[in-house]
Amino acid sequence: MLTALLVMTAVALVLGALLGYASLKFKVEGDPLVEKIDAILPQTQCGQCGFPGCRPYATAIASGEADINQCPPGGEEGIRKLADLLGREFKSLSEEHGVEKPKSVAVIDENTCIGCTLCIQACPVDAIVGAAKQLHTVVAGECTGCELCVAPCPVDCIAMEPITETVDTWKWRYPVIQIKQAA
Amino acid sequence: MLRKLFKFHGGVKPQTHKAESTTQPIARVPLPERLVIPLHQAVGGHPRPLVAPGDKVFKGQRIGGADGSLSSAVHASTSGIVRDVAPALMPHTSGLTTLSVIIEPDGEDRWGELDKVNYRTTPPDELRDFLRDAGVVGLGGAVFPSYAKLKPGKEGRLKTLVINGAECEPFITCDDLLMRERADDMLKGIVAMRHMLQAEEVLIGIEDNKPEAVAAVQAAIAASGQSGIQAVAIPTRYPAGGAKQLIRVLTGIEVPHGRRSTDFGVQCFNVGTAYSIYEALEFGRPLISRVVTVAGNVDQPRNYEVLIGTPMDHVVRLSGARPDTDRYIMGGPMMGVRLPAFDVPVVKATNCILVGSPALFPPPPPEMPCIRCGECAKACPADLAPFEMYWFSRSKNFGKAQEYHLFDCIECGCCSFVCPSHIPLVDYFRFSKSEIWARERDKSSSDAARDRFEFKNFRQEREKQEKAEKLAAKAAATREKVAADNQAGTASPAAEAPDTAKPAAPSAEDTKRALIAAAMEKARQQKAQVAPKNTEQLSAETQADIDAIEARRAASAATPPTPDA
To answer: Is there a contact between A125 and B456 if contact means CB atoms under 8 Å apart?
Structure first.
């Protein structure tokens, strides 16, 4: 009886020590869930969700502070992916955070720009180049279409233009499935 | 000499329909009223336009310069005047436009000055640049820039150069006629390619339903006296003209997933490409025309030498399209794509204009459920399981479809051809591929945005910190200096004062005053440093004026305004 107890205790101690060592050795830095959520978010960094960027929103979702339907650029598909990842019920996009729009880029009207640098400071991804009293321009390839530069512009020279389909970005359509009429 | 041939998996034997268009030689096409030359005709970067509306261009003049890697140049097909550089409808299923140069021919068809090179003496890099600027691309249909493929492998030598004259797709006979009529010139192009690649042997694969072409090429080889070049008749089975399939048949090498044929010492070119390389190297003529088969619902199916940019209906008219024509297909019935209009231009990828009608190509029977019979897997020349890929493509489970090697699919259409349920399998695979590409583009752009966002935050933090540190260091330095001055100069009352709260206030005030004085002194010094140096050579009059001003300034400086008490 006593031997059994001792053996069990010894085994428990050894296993406990192993587990403790493993938890130190293979410690995961940061919350892996935040990474996964962040990977789904569109990285527009527009702040429409009410958080200053996609990563803070991902952190808020992971900690349960924010709902999954606050990201308009991610759209319905994004919400579906988040719902799948978190095992939650799908819900439609919350209206107070905005509506889903086609992806667009900011374009600066070169005749109107006064070179005030306000849009440069507002751009979350440094996609606007220029200097004080010099013409600014948007690097279209880096623009996420967040619209954060539109409001600060004192002369209203920034417009959002939807991205048009080109031969390079054209996609084959989903083959039409013929539905037979029930007799 | 008989050669051991190999078999590739699967394949089908559709009706070839080749006899109709091979009865007559290649014909020339009269100049059309307008040529529409899309700048983007090959895979790779979009060439930039080099001409403006109103410019006069010569035949063979470069109108689009190669831009970026894998890009290749575009040339004016005839002499004339550039009417516009604007987006125009391109021969693509999407019905989208692309930047094109619209030329109105002047009827003279006059060549400009052409550069020539000697491929035996020119260094390989220069030769490749020359071919890039001559716009030579693969004419088998994939329009991959040829210069990028004309690099010998890692060992510096290539074992086998495969020349593709199989032309397995029904209706198309442009390579057949080219080999029959221009075998000698084509062979000269092959010899040049062999020299560039340092290839040991050359195998020209031709399907055995083209005995005239085989004979013509064999005669040309015998006449040229070249050794190590062989024209091989291979069994007729679609798609023997696929690069990987032809390499398999001729050499027995099966190029595995994710590898290239060059890893195994084999490179493959189309016979039409060999001919255009000959034209470019021998005469300096860029790729401005190609042989195009017009077949299908026409009175006289035939091959034509067509200038790039000629509207398709202009060519088809010569063959006499029948009244019930409802569509043009670019390519053959297996892999071709339906075009959005009749007047789209012939481009470098156009090997065949297949004229369709409801009678010739009736609408497919309704799609039935997949019964997993496995016929498609038996027919697949790429050894894939199309029914699995179909299942995952249909349910938009793209990750799984990729696991079944969706991207090894060559879209040959064998699976759709044999499917007893009439499922348009290739349409599903094309849909999946373009969807996956779109997602990858989105993913990489969102990753870039994340990096840039994080870097911006990091940069802002760093700037804030650097500024704070700089300010702190400056303040500390000045404070030290002032303290030192105080100690060295008049014995400060604060320093001697007892350690109480009351004298601390004047001390702070003193320090502040001293700081201000130090700042003013520094400003004065800076001002003195940047004093203008335009007073060195002056007339006596100006010097007198300056002296007077300086005197006034000195006087005012001597009696400064009294500071506040």
So the answer is: yes
Nearest CA in chain A to B455: A125
**B453 interfaces chain A, CB cutoff of 8 Å:** yes
Residue of A nearest to B430 (CA): A172
Q: Would an 8 Å CB–CB cutoff place B508 in contact with chain A?
A: no
Supply the range of the domain harboring residue A152.
102-165
What are the backbone dihedrals phi and psi of residue B37, each rounded to the nearest 5 degrees, phi first? -110, 105
On whether ipTM exceeds 0.90, the answer is no
Angle at B111 between CA B107 and CA B116, to 5 degrees: 165
Domains contained in chain A, number = 2
H helix intervals, B320-424? 375-379, 386-394, 398-403, 414-418
Q: How far is CA B69 from CA B147, B263, B306, in A?
A: 11, 21, 28
pLDDT of B386-442, one tens digit each?
Answer: 999 999 999 989 999 999 999 999 999 999 999 999 999 999 999 999 999 999 998
CB B425 within 8 A of CB B391: no
- Other CB atoms within a 10 A radius of the CB of residue B128 amount to 19
Contact B96 A169 (CB under 8 A): no
Pair A142, A123: CB distance under 8 Å: no
How far is residue B349's CA from residue B309's CA, in Å, rounded to a whole number? 11
B450:A54 CB<8 A: yes
**Residue B448 CB: number of other CB atoms within 10 A?**
15
Mean pLDDT (chain B) is: 89
The architecture in CATH of the region B19-32+114-356 reads: 3-Layer(aba) Sandwich (3.40)
* A27 in a structural domain: no
* A92 and A106 share one domain: no
Read off the amino acid at residue B469.
E
